[in-house]
From TrEMBL:
InterPro entries: DjlA_N, TerB-like. This is TerB family tellurite resistance protein. Pfam families: TerB. Coiled coil: none annotated. Residues 103-227 form the Co-chaperone DjlA N-terminal domain. The lineage of its organism: Bacteria, Bacillati, Actinomycetota, Actinomycetes, Kitasatosporales.
């Protein structure tokens, strides 16, 4: 006879069921924060509540003894699912788009500043990339003015090595974005910078230095950076 069947089996199961109805645990949740997040269950941006809980033993459904804290958890206001607090580390769709747009803009300025001449072809290539990333009103003249302002503000010589200030700006724009991009996405940003650098001729040493900084901020290893920069030189 299979376990759980027959007179004795039915008795054991009934007894266990009876005990579970008498004794149990219950969690009381308290809202400690709210906001908007990317819900893995819904697959989109949703409102959430951040909950902290306290567990208690129950007797006949009534809480009698504390059992300690639990959580915190994040509860989606749409689907009601609970997730670990680390889900808030993932940017919302809106925030991710803004991060990507700012990253492309920063890379374009860095490569233009490294190139020195700011030729019309380089500016056109950079403006196309920046507009595609989300700055729809970006123009070549705006980028040229920003590069000049950047050089004046930092006292940086055009076509010099990627200075500490520019390297910091690249890392500030790219470091938070890199963990949320697939390898192809990280490579795409580097290749956009490479195309800007190549628009007016071969890489200069300063452009290579700036692109190496971009690759490092995107967590692309040095060998892959070299491979991608070489591939960008080859017409498709």
């Amino acid at each position: 006879m299979l376990p759980g069947w027959g007179r004795n089996g039915r008795f054991v199961r009934a007894r266990a069921l009876g005990v579970s109805r008498v004794l149990g645990t219950r969690t009381a949740w308290t809202t400690v924060g709210d906001g908007e997040f990317f819900c893995p269950g819904c697959g989109g941006d949703r409102n959430y509540q951040r909950l902290a809980g306290r567990r208690r033993f129950t007797l006949l459904g009534m809480p009698v003894l504390p059992r300690g804290a639990t959580g915190p958890v994040v509860e989606c206001a749409a689907c009601g699912d609970h997730f670990g607090a680390d889900v808030l580390d993932h940017p919302t769709t809106t925030r991710f788009s803004a991060m990507l747009r700012d990253a492309v803009h920063t890379v374009a300025l860095a490569i233009l500043a490294a190139g020195g001449t700011c030729s019309r072809t380089s500016l056109e290539t950079a403006a196309d990339a920046v507009r595609a990333a989300g700055f729809e009103d970006c123009t070549e003249d705006q980028l040229a003015a920003l590069v000049e302002a950047l050089a004046a503000d930092t006292g940086r010589v055009h076509a010099g090595p990627c200075g500490a200030g520019l390297a910091i700006e690249l890392h500030e724009a790219l470091d938070p974005l890199a963990p949320h991009l697939a390898p192809t996405g990280r490579e795409s940003i580097l290749l956009q910078g490479a195309r800007i650098a190549l628009a007016d001729g071969p890489y200069t040493p300063a452009e290579r230095d700036a692109l190496a900084t971009v690759g490092a901020a995107l967590t692309i290893c040095g060998d892959d950076v070299s491979r991608l920069l070489a591939a960008a030189r080859t017409p498709s």
